[in-house]
Amino acid sequence: MESIGVLMTCPPTYPYLVEELEKRFTLYKFQAIQDKAHFLNTHKAAIRAVVGNSGFGADAELINMLPNLEIVSSFSVGLDKVDLAKCKERKIRVTNTPDVLTEDVADLAIGLMLAVLRRLCESDRYVRSGKWKRGDYKLTTKFSGKTVGIIGLGRIGMAIAKRAGAFSCPINYYTRTKKPDVNYKYYPSVVELAANCHILVVACPLTEETRHIVNREVIDALGPKGVLINIGRGPHVDEPELVSALVEGRLGGAGLDVFENEPHVPEQLFALENVVLLPHVGSGTVETRQAMADLVVGNLEAHFLNKPLLTPVV
Amino acid sequence: MATDQEGLPEVLLFMKPPAFVLVGEQPFTSDKFRYLKVYESPLPLDQFLLTHAQSVQAILSSGGAPVTADILRLLPAVRVVVTTSAGLNQIDLPECRRRGIKVANTGDTYSADVADMAVGLLIDVMRKISASDGYVRQRRWSTEGDFPLASKLGGKRVGVVGLGNIGCEVAKRLEAFGCRIAYNSRKPKSYVSYPFYPNVCELASNCDVLVICCALTEQTHHLINKKVLSALGKDGIIVNIGRGPIIDEKEMVRCLVRGEVAGAGLDVFENEPDVPKELFSLDNVVLSPHCAVFTRESLINVSELVVGNLEAFFSNKPLLSEYADD
C-alpha cells in the first residue's frame, strides 16, 4: 500500500499517528508545503486519502482538487471541517473516531464544572502566590445537586449525564426531538433549557443549524448565576456575546475547551476568575489519542483492503 | 446554668471560626444561647477561663482551636463540645469520654462538598486542568502550540483510604467515571462490594490513585509513608482531602520532585498555611487552601446543624449529630 498517497491536512504534531501512517502509505504533510496549489496539481493523481482533525479537514475546494480522493479519515469525532455533502456527491467515504474519546470528553466537562464552581485553578494560584498565608480563600459554589442542562444527548451528552447523576445533579436536556427512553427532563428549546438549569453544557455536533446555538438570548436566560461549559466547538457559542456577558457579570461563569478561532482566546477573559480556559484538550490523553490514531489507520487500511470500514459516517 | 445579664446560657468560643468570617456570625446565632468569645478578651487563656468560664457547659470548636485535656481541666462544667469542622482531631476525645462530655460533629453535612473537591482535584491532576488553564492565560497556546497529552481517568484503579461518609461519596462519584474502586478502612464494610485491602501498602500496590478520606488519629499519622508511596509507584497519583499529617509530607515532596510519584492533588498540609515551596514549580500538583467545605451551601447547612445541636443541648434534648466512635 506504500504507493497510496495520504494527505495530512492537520498539523503533524502527533508522532504516533504520523509514524503509523508513514509505515503503510506515502504521507504528505500539507501544512509544511509552501505552494499548496502547485503541490496539489502535481500530486493529485497519487492522493487517494485525506487525514484531518477537529481543526483541519477537507472542504469543497480541496476535494475538487483531488480527483482520486476515495476516503477522508478524521482524527476527531466532529466532522464540521469536512464537507460531507460534497463527499456524498463524490462517493468519498468519511470516517471519524467516535466512542474512544467519549469518556475523556465527558470527564473533562465535569472537570470544568468543578473547576469553575469550586475555583480550583484560581485557588491553586492563590496558594502558589503565597496569599494563603494572609487569609482563607473566599467561598465557592457547591456543585453536587446543581441542575445540569445538556444540549445534545448523544454519546458524549449521555456520558456527561451519567457522571453528573453521581453528584445528584438533576439532568435536563435539549435535542432536536425528544428521546423516548430517557429519564431526564426534556426542554423543546435551548432558551427554555438555559432558564431551567444552573450549568449549561454544549455537547452536540457543529452543523449549520447549531452554529451560535448559544446566543445572547440563551446567555441571558442562563443568567448571572449560570455557568456555561463548552466541550463542543467554538462556533457553537456567539463568542463576543459570551465575552461581554462574562466581563459585565451577566453570566456567572464559563468553562471553555473550545473557541471560535483557536488557538486565539479572547484576552478579556484572562482577567476573570470565574472562567477556566483550556487549549482544546477534550480528547487529549495518551490513551485516547492512541486509540483515535488506531481508528484512523484502521479505517484507511480497511478501505484499501476492501474490508468494511470501522467507523464510517459517509 | 451559666448566665449573663440576659439570662442566656453561654457557649465558649476560643477563636473566631472560619465559618463566621466566611458567612458571617448571624447564621450561627440563636435566642436560646450566646457566645462567650475568648478571642475578644485581652486576658491570657488560662486566666480568662478561670475568671469567666467556670460554669460554661458548652464549647463550639473549630479546626484551629484545639480542645485539649489541659483546657478541659479548667472547665469543670463543660458537658458538650460542638464542632464546625469535619475532623475531630483537634479534640481530646479520650478525655471527653472520661469526663462524660458529649461531642457533636458535622454528620454528613460536608460530605458531598469534600467528595466533590476530591474528584475535582483528581480530574485536575490527571487532565492537567489548572496547568493548561495557566498555559492559555500565559498566551502559550498561540506561541508554543498544543499542550502535552494528559492521562485518562476512566478505567483507573482508585484506592480509597477510609471508607466513611466522605470515602463512600468519593467512591460513588468515581464509579460513574469508570474507575475501579478498592479501599482500606479499620474494618471491612459489609454493605459495599468494593474489594477490601487490610493494609494501605497492599492497597497502594494495586491502585493507580490513592484518595485519603480518613480521620487523623494516632494510628493514621504518617500512614502514607515512604513504603506506601513506593508501592503506589511512579505512575501513581495521591489526593488528600483528609488532614495533612496523614501523609509524610517531606517524603511525598521528595517523591514528587524526583518523579517517583506521578502527581498529587492536595487540599491539606502538615503545617498550614505553609506549603512546601518545592511544589510550586511542579505542574503535576494541584494545591488548594484547605477549603473543601467552604461553599456557601455547606456553611449555611452547618450553621443550622450547630444551632440545632446547641439548642437541643440547652433544652435537654438529644443532640442532632452526636459523635460515637464505632
SS element count, helices of chain A: 11
Name the quaternary structure.
heterodimer
- CATH fold-level topology of the largest domain in chain B: Rossmann fold
Specify the overall morphology of chain B. Answer: globular
Number of domains of chain A: 2
| Gap from first CA to last CA of chain B | 32 Å
What CATH first level of the largest domain in chain B would be assigned? Alpha Beta
The SS-based structural class of chain B is: alpha/beta
Low-confidence stretches of chain B: none
At the fourth CATH level, what is the homologous superfamily of the largest domain in chain A?
NAD(P)-binding Rossmann-like Domain
Question: What's the overall geometry of chain A?
Answer: globular
Strand arrangement, major sheet of chain B: 7-6-8-9-10-11
Straight-line N-to-C gap of chain A? 23 Å
User: Can you count the beta strands of chain B?
Assistant: 11
| Total helical elements of chain B | 12
Task: State the share of residues found in helices of chain B, binned by percent.
Answer: 25-40%
Radius of gyration of chain B: 22 Å
| Total domain units of chain B | 2
Could you tell me the strand content of chain A as a percent range?
15-25%
GO molecular function (chain B): glyoxylate reductase (NADPH) activity; hydroxypyruvate reductase [NAD(P)H] activity; NAD binding
Pfam family, one (chain B): 2-Hacid_dh_C
Keywords (chain B): NAD, NADP, Oxidoreductase
Protein name (chain B): glyoxylate reductase (NADP(+))
